[in-house]
């Protein structure tokens, strides 16, 4: 059982394997019981300040004796340029930045009498979360019942305390103190809203910063819940960031089920043994090696955000124009998500993002598989050769298509069936390009994520036939699908637009 404490109120949408089973008020807190893939999470929304935090965590620990881990996931302010808006810090060290009991002998500023100078948590749980690399950077959190509005206040605090503080908030330190006394695991994950040293109380782009920060909070919680609710023993400390991007996405889409594509009795998922992952059973008798490769991975530019521009009262005049344009878009445009198709390549900005035909992407995937299949070497685990290895190919290309029925001319909107049609279209090109390639892998699985509503991705999995040291074939192409449906490339103009139709996207401009 895991407790999540935050001043931000959030709920989980009920669906398969996710259900809110109880919700009630206690004092000034909202308590929710959420079953997430079989794991129980107790979510407490609390008021601001140290007293509210201490009261809430004490109640949870007494009410739920099985609670062994406490997470504080919340918004906060940074105190340096290392952390920008929507960045996330992970804190295992906490201090009070408003405690001055130095009148007592040997007590330092920030320290409580008969308590340590700081509260630190460096156990196995902290290592697990750090190793999963959820886009986190480490930082020391300073807690007080006051916020900092300028660099002078911060300098006075550091002069007294004498240590670097990366993040300031009003709850984490009190939670840490109670957790330490109760001998439970504790971590704080803080999503940065703004830099505390710049004037932020009248920030003209406050709305957009909050939008970015809250979305980051939701994104982080989803990935964190996936990790903590997995039934596997997970050690990804040696995984690359590219591999972890793919692994995180698969956990988000299929949770533990994606592992069963390769080994049904997996107990441990381990990195650092040669392949991208080693999938190990409980008895460690028949491990399986899994190589992960990325094809056409999008490169993300490191763009500067507004909290790095600290220019006093004139900050708004010098804020990056791209942020101001985004803010304008948010204020002026409404998109009705209920009228968007699941295969909506139209969401891409054709001026800045290249779109690829299905055939082009299939050929790129085939070339990557052919190159990887040239490596006939095997892996070892605990001194023994691993007899089976698999290949997972992750493709992140922006593919341009939509699907229509050739007789009714209607769009296909069923997500599962649409995935089958897309996979069938790829098989046509893949099998032709790989007809002369022998594979050392027991099976090759291609995974693609097609953009869908609310920026989610609909998974398309294309498995090859099983058996190593033979030709690569991704199943038999369904001829009926080819006759009845057309996968239309939206960058081409050789289809009848009346037959094809148009995207059901409704954009409403606000009137002045």
Automatic annotation (TrEMBL):
| UniProt-listed InterPro entries | Nucleoside_phosphorylase_d, Nucleoside_phosphorylase_sf
Record domain Nucleoside phosphorylase: where = 30-203
Check the record and name the SUPFAM superfamilies matching this protein. Answer: Purine and uridine phosphorylases
**Which is a GO BP term held by this UniProt record?**
L-methionine salvage from S-adenosylmethionine
- State the GO CC annotations: cytosol
- A Pfam family: PNP_UDP_1
Top-level taxon of origin: Bacteria
MF terms from GO for this chain are: adenosylhomocysteine nucleosidase activity; methylthioadenosine nucleosidase activity
Q: Which NCBIfam families match?
A: FIB_Spiroplas (NF033570)
* Protein's name in the database: Fibril protein
Q: Which organism is it from?
A: Spiroplasma chrysopicola DF-1
